[in-house]
Every structure is written in structure tokens, then in C-alpha cells.
Amino acid sequence: MACGTPVIGRPSGAIPEVVRDGVTGFVTDDLAGAIGRLGEISRADCRRDFEQRFTLERMVREHAAVYEKLVGE
To answer: What is the mean pLDDT of residues 7-36?
Structure first.
């Protein structure tokens, strides 16, 4: 997604948390069928979503919050 490439993945692991189905790619068990639908996904939207959701500052802030919660600070 960082380079504007839509992602296709199965609905397991972190894929449903990372891929916005129909926006940045497809979360589906029908991987072959999703390939034929890639034209529906805007590469610019993929990049924009990445820039909003996966900035270094946001990732550090959210990871730090989890660690602080775990240690009770």
C-alpha cells in the first residue's frame, strides 16, 4: 500500500486490520476472483490511506500507549 499497490489477502491474521476491503484491496478467500477486480481499487487511495494510517509518528505513539498500558503507567 505504501507504493500505491492494492493488497489481496485472506481474512486471517492481520490482513483484516490492515487492508480496508474495497478501498485498499480485498479481504477474501477468493484470491483469484479478486485479481480480476483490482481495477476497482484506486492506487492513489491506497497510498493516501497508508500515509494517514501508518505514519512513523502514529505507529510510535500507538505502540507506546500499548506498552504504557501494559506496565500500568
So the answer is: 96
